[in-house]
Write a structure and sequence with these properties.
This protein has 190 residues and is of the alpha/beta class. It has a single domain, classed as Rossmann fold (3-Layer(aba) Sandwich). It has 4 helices and 12 strands; from the N terminus they run ααβαββββββββαβββ. The chain has helices spanning 3-15, 19-33, 59-68, 141-148, and strands spanning 43-46, 73-80, 85-90, 96-99, 105-108, 112-113, 120-123, 127-128, 134-135, 154-158, 179-181, 186-188. It has an 8-stranded mixed beta sheet with strand order 6-3-2-1-7-10-11-12, sandwiched between helices. The protein has a two-stranded antiparallel ribbon with strand order 4-5. Strands 8-9 form a two-stranded antiparallel sheet. A hairpin with a 4-residue loop joins strand 11 (179-181) and strand 12. The protein is globular, with a radius of gyration of 16 Å. The chain starts with a helix and ends with a strand. The relative contact order is 0.19.
Length: 190
């Protein structure tokens, strides 16, 4: 299938999840995230979930990280829709958030973080294939972010659904994930 087809199909599938299904899936995603080795990480970029898009709830992971790995710096982003880029900021306990006009929670007056410092990036997605290629919302924000990061940054997608066989229209700018976590298991790609 093509990205546009997968984008529409998986938006619909995600929006049809009941509150109980979503809560169960979020807890399963967290359980798998807790199995990853976070000991060598200093900076972990986490997307803040868009509630209206029924995205996986990353607040559970953030709360767990702050207790289980307090020395890890949580990093969040602010999107610049004029040029399709994201700036990264420390997400401290007292960081104020505002929801932008697209429903994305973003930091206000936070400490900037360089992309090269990121050790792990949790990425939102709508679909992923068995090679780790992801389908996002189609704006390329994370593709541009990954171009600015170190080559060894560990990329983790979060999905409520299992990988599809193959995405037809993968571009040269698409960077495959290292792994994707679904409620069923952790899928490693590289």
């Amino acid at each position: 299938m093509y990205k546009s087809e997968l984008r529409e199909q998986y938006k619909q599938l995600r929006n049809r999840l009941s509150a109980d299904q979503k809560k169960s899936y979020d807890n399963q995603l967290l359980a798998h995230l807790q199995q990853l080795d976070w000991n060598s990480c200093k900076y972990v970029h986490v997307f803040l979930s868009i509630a209206s898009a029924n995205e996986p709830d990353t607040s559970l992971f953030i709360a767990w990280m702050r207790v289980a790995h307090p020395s890890v710096n949580i990093v969040i982003s602010k999107s610049d829709f004029s040029n399709g880029t994201m700036q990264n900021f420390l997400y401290e306990r007292d960081t104020k958030l505002e929801v932008n006009k697209w429903g994305i929670p973003e930091p206000v007056h936070a400490v900037p973080v360089e992309e090269k410092k990121l050790d792990v990036i949790l990425l939102p997605l709508l679909a992923v294939d068995k090679a780790g290629n992801r389908v996002g919302y189609g704006k390329g924000f994370y593709d541009r972010l990954l171009q600015q990061c170190r080559k060894d940054v560990y990329t983790v997608g979060l999905s409520y659904f299992e990988p599809v066989e193959h995405i037809e229209d993968i571009g040269e700018w698409d960077i495959p994930l290292k792994c994707c976590i679904s409620p069923e298991r952790i899928h490693y790609f590289q």
